[in-house]
Amino acid sequence: MSAARRVVVVGGGLAGITAALDCAEAGAEVTLVEVRRRLGGAAYSFEREGLQMDNGQHVFLRCCTAYRALLARLGSEHLTSIQRRLDIPVLGPGRPLTRLRRGPLPAPLHLAGALARYPHLTPAERVGAVRAALGLMRLREGEERLEAITLGEWLAARGQGSNAVAALWDLISLPSLNLPADQASMALAAFVLRTGLLSTADAGDIGFHQAPLSQIVGEPAQRALQAAGVQVRLGWRAEGLERTATGIDVQGRAGREAADRADDEIGESEHVGGGETLHAEAVVMAIPHVRAVALLEPLLGDSARALRGLGGSPIVNLHVVYDREVCALPFAAGVGTPVQYIFDRTRVAQAPAGSQYLAVSLSGAECEMGMSVEKLRELYLPALAELLPRARQAEVRQFLVTREHAATFRAGPGVAALRPGAETTVPGLVLAGAWTDTGWPATLEGAVMSGHAAARHVLARLDGRSSQPLRAAA
Prior knowledge:
This protein folds into 3 domains: about 5-45 and about 215-310 and about 410-460, 3-Layer(bba) Sandwich (FAD/NAD(P)-binding domain); about 105-200; about 315-410, Polyamine Oxidase, Chain A, domain 2. Helices cover about 30% and strands about 25% of the residues. The chain has 14 helices and 21 strands. A hairpin with a 6-residue loop joins strand 7 and strand 8. The chain starts with 5 loop residues before the first strand and ends in a 12-residue tail after the last helix. The relative contact order is 0.19.
């Protein structure tokens, strides 16, 4: 880049952090604005009743190379770990512990042994699961018919009944697509299953964060951005965009914002000064689609309004602190129970000595979103006690609930047509976020990939390599 050009990045999540770093390292003059008082977007931590809690249990896979590379760039990859081999402990009421563990054979045979011994499926269901996996391998990428059906419908046509779906396929669909198989897009499900489980033997090995997300993402990102020369403006709310002869103006103001609520609501800010305009040759909009619509609509019209069709899918997290250890596993999946996944966060959260802090992650949690804390307690504490016998005699010292109303876009059939690319019809206005068309569902990996894509488009335009109008945003 021959001379510094100004870029404004709106949003300090993974997509915005990535785009800002890429643009700054290419020589652009970058300002990143974020309405909250911290970076990290949906990947953040907070303190509640003395515990360092994450807003959700954000796991990743070995194949998530873009996300892992970002953490290496931030200097925090050492605060994560990846399984040597995929190993999912599975708990069911009154059933012994079993494991879905990959074997030493190459893909797709690496999972054959685990399926053959999986006690939550009947022998006929195990054979059917193997046939379904082989059918997934034969699918052609981009088949239009897959966009119109659910994973559940595709599985049903191959003899996988409700028990097989609940005991096996939902273990993958819920955490990766934030929807159960009977609601999830078959196209996205096929991508996840093939990329994460069937492409190479080690692709699906699970990665964990071994420190609070603020220490892995937010705080190191702030240091990396500042080292790259990015001006970071926290507590700055973008309120409008205006196209000018030389670029785009971002209108907004600084505010004194209330503390994060440990969900997806930003809340109201107390504005302490007049409005401010930031001018840039290019702007990256890297905020959730539900918030981006209002800013984009005056410039993009119908294509911005179409983003509402992406919808949202909620996640609820239960945070349970027992007075003793009740679970010896670092994490586990639940079958035949409302409990989906359990994570031991005792050490990471700095829970009191002798106690154990378990986080229960509930994806696609539309029903749980409407439940009171007391109702969730009445339902889930007995469910945990069914899975964990030692919990029956333990005292529950804390029971907290965090809710993300629109944690992800709704990954149902037809969603691919609604996901925009990075470019828009306004020169210099670029989109980023896990909701854009990355090929991935709404994941850490997809967010980082979208940031790289946004930066590439911005830098190409600033360098004069893109002179044609950019395609519509939806």
